[in-house]
Amino acid sequence: MAETIETRPFLPFLPKNTTVMMMGTFPPTSEKRSMEFHYPNFQNDMWRVYGLVFFDDKEHFRKGEEKAFDADKIKAFLSEVGIASCPTVLKAIREKGNASDAFLKVVEPVPLAEVLDQIPDCKHIGTTGGKATEILLSLLPEKVKLPKTGETIPFVFNGRELTLTRLPSTSRAYPLSLAKKAEAYKNFFKACGLKTK
After folding, report:
1. Distance between alpha carbon 174 and the CA centroid of its chain, in Å?
2. Are 129 and 174 in contact (CB under 8 A)?
3. What angle do CA 95, 99, 102 make, to 5 degrees?
4. pLDDT tens-digit series, residues 72-87
5. Stretch 80-97: mean pLDDT, rounded?
6. Does residue 101 surpass a pLDDT of 90?
7. Regarding beta strands 89-94 and 5-7, do their DSSP bridges make them parallel or antiparallel, or are they unpaired?
8. pLDDT at 113 (0 to 100)
9. Whether pTM exceeds 0.85
10. CB 88 within 8 A of CB 166
11. Which of the pair, 58 or 96, is modelled with greater confidence?
12. What dihedral do alpha carbons 132, 138, 139, 142 form, nearest 10°?
């Protein structure tokens, strides 16, 4: 049976005023999505983390009583504060048919130069987990040591000085409480100069 190569289902979300870009790996399969936007799985805690960090409310981005997130509300917020979202993977094969990074075979990574050209004021990148960090580092011209979770390192890409922070994964499979994940993200966003709760 031939392996299916999938292309990421959502375009990078790149507000013109972006100063911070979040980079994960690859969205889940369509049946696991509660909306057509980044981190669409209702079981993933990304938007609960954002709710806690910026509004002190984990349900802030939930769509009413539905088991879904509100994509329009999320986009409006990200546009207002200048946060971009872009997967590190453009094309991949799901070796087990799920969203697990452990079984994700990268066919083509993100065209990083092309993405960064569209957000000239971006200074900080946050990677959401180990695999996303490894993929991003593989795109850099010079070899950079993999940072620990919570660590920030400077790097240069196409003559541009940026920082990379490796953040904990917001997947429920990652063994860290929601409160601890939110704390890590809050520290990151504060260090990037964004106003948090």
Report:
1. 15
2. yes
3. 60
4. 999 999 999 999 999 9
5. 93
6. no
7. antiparallel
8. 95
9. yes
10. no
11. 58
12. 130
Instruction: Give the model's pLDDT for residue 2.
Output: 61
Radius of gyration of the chain (CA): 16
CA distance 64 to 193: 30
pLDDT of amino acid 103: 83
Q: Could you give the CA distance from residue 87 to residue 110 in angstroms, rounded to a whole number?
A: 7
The rounded distance, in Å, linking the Cα atoms of 22 and 86 is: 6
Burial class (CB in 10 A: 0-12, 13-18, 19+), 119: buried
Give the three-class secondary structure for 100. coil
3-class secondary structure per residue, 9-77: CCCCECCCCCCEEEECCCCCCHHHCCCCCCCCCCCCCHHHHHHHHHHCCCCCCECCCCCCECHHHHHHH
Beta bridge partners of 154: 163
Q: Strands 20-23 and 5-7: what pairing?
A: unpaired
Both tokens of residue 27? 């969205």
pLDDT above 70 (res 64): yes
149, 166 Cβ separation under 8 angstroms: yes
